[in-house]
Specification:
globular; 6-stranded mixed beta sheet; 12 strands; Purple Acid Phosphatase, chain A, domain 2; binds zinc ion; 8 helices; 248 residues; alpha/beta
């Protein structure tokens, strides 16, 4: 099986369409690690697409807040403004769908699972090897995909029990980078963010997990100017447009 793993779409339909174009015919099923909405200008089109095409989804913190499961008080000012805008622009059907998304971890197959933040807290940001070591203690599968940090790559744990960061960075001139999955290691992997990358590469990110034993981390550029024009028109905070440009 080849699974297309996507996360942190953040209502960016141009980025999602570019990822789908770059991976067309290259996978058997799509899996989503959460944050369909929030920040971006197209919450309904992105949620409509996920509803129609992705059966295995876990919720993200923005999905909870934008659908009213949680209050926006925990968010910073920019995220809160975007969440209120999103709530006001989502259809009733899509709000109901987002409200009912499952929290992770969610088992996809015997050897792999997905979640949004960490196995003990769906809102935890795992960015350091120390935090990853804590997470590895709670993981039940050889391979787990997570999101939330918007940083492509993740961690592995070898037989010594120490976590290592994957030196994951798809060079600008390339669109994919392959990582072998070894049976003597455990993996905690992040496909990166489709709709709002924060790892200094402004291209939309994704991963393809090939269960014969490797992961392809991918990047693709998209029509960002179209996304930004819609964000301006919707009066979403300028900071969010700048983040797309910078990839931070
Ligand atoms: Zn997110």
């Amino acid at each position: 099986m080849r699974y297309l793993i996507i996360s942190d779409l953040h209502a960016n339909i141009e980025a999602l369409q570019a990822v789908l174009a770059a991976t067309e015919g290259d996978y058997t099923e799509v899996i989503c690690c959460g944050d369909l909405v929030g920040y971006g200008p197209d919450p309904d089109p992105v949620t409509d697409w996920v509803r129609a095409n992705v059966k295995l989804v876990v919720r993200g913190n923005h999905d909870r807040v934008c659908s009213g499961v949680d209050s926006a008080e925990q968010f910073n000012e920019t995220a809160r403004q975007a969440a209120y805008w999103t709530r006001a622009h989502l259809s009733g059907e899509n709000i109901a769908y987002l409200r009912n998304l499952a929290p992770g971890p969610l088992e996809i197959a015997e050897q792999f699972a997905i979640l949004h933040g960490s196995p003990r807290d769906e809102d935890e940001y795992v960015t350091t090897t120390w935090e990853a070591e804590e997470s590895f203690r709670f993981l039940d599968h050889p391979v787990t995909f997570f999101g939330h940090t918007h940083l492509q790559g993740g961690f592995l744990r070898g037989s010594q029990g120490l976590a290592e960061a994957l030196p994951m960075h798809v060079p600008k001139a390339k669109s994919r980078r392959v990582w072998q999955i070894r049976s003597d290691q455990t993996y905690y992997l992040n496909p990166g963010s489709v709709g709002q990358p924060r790892d200094a590469d402004n291209r939309a990110a994704f991963a393809i997990y090939d269960t014969t034993g490797f992961v392809e981390f991918g990047r693709t550029s998209y029509d960002m100017l179209a996304t930004i024009a819609k964000m301006r028109k919707a009066r979403l905070p300028d900071f969010l447009s700048r983040r797309l440009t910078l990839g931070r």
